[in-house]
Design goal:
The protein is 28% helix and 34% strand. It contains 4 helices and 7 strands. A hairpin with a 5-residue loop joins β6 and β7. α1 packs across α2. The radius of gyration is 15 Å and the shape is globular. The protein binds zinc ion.
Length: 143
């Protein structure tokens, strides 16, 4: 749960700061990677994004889970950005995970109740996986 929430915070910070969407990711307990459409990564990106994410974790933003009718969800800009359209049409009610004020996504996962329950993150590595695809590896640590 901590790692999953940390990834949503990372997505929100990167979208708000650089306007860059996610292209993929993978998660294990307390360690994860996520790919973004950067080309190239900005200078000092790792240190900058680590600080921004940890500031958001410290801010103890509440995480709200709700359900929206599909017809409404497909009109929400945040949910469009995070590809609500890829959810199978048979799903009529969309589960929404909202890190209030930071990141809102259609999501089936379990999360902590507020961002300060994550602890801290450390950017372990950034690497290029090709044009428009840069990988960020994070570790979740106790604060
Ligand atoms: Zn998620």
């Amino acid at each position: 749960m901590r790692t999953h929430t940390a990834l949503h915070v990372l997505c929100g910070v990167i979208w708000n700061g650089w306007g860059v969407p996610v292209t993929g990711g993978n998660m294990e307990p307390l360690t994860a990677r996520m790919d973004f459409e950067f080309d190239p990564l900005p200078p000092d990106f790792g240190a900058d994004v680590e600080k921004l994410v940890n500031d958001e974790l410290d801010a103890a933003r509440p995480i709200a889970v709700s359900f929206l009718p599909r017809a409404e969800a497909v009109l929400d800009a945040d949910l469009i950005r995070t590809k609500v359209s890829l959810i199978p049409p048979s799903v009529e009610e969309i589960r929404v995970v909202d890190i209030v004020g930071l990141d809102k996504q259609a999501d089936g996962g379990t999360h902590v109740r507020a961002t300060d329950e994550v602890g801290r993150i450390r950017i372990v590595k950034t690497e290029s996986k090709g044009k428009g695809n840069k990988r960020i590896r994070i570790q979740v640590e106790d604060s």
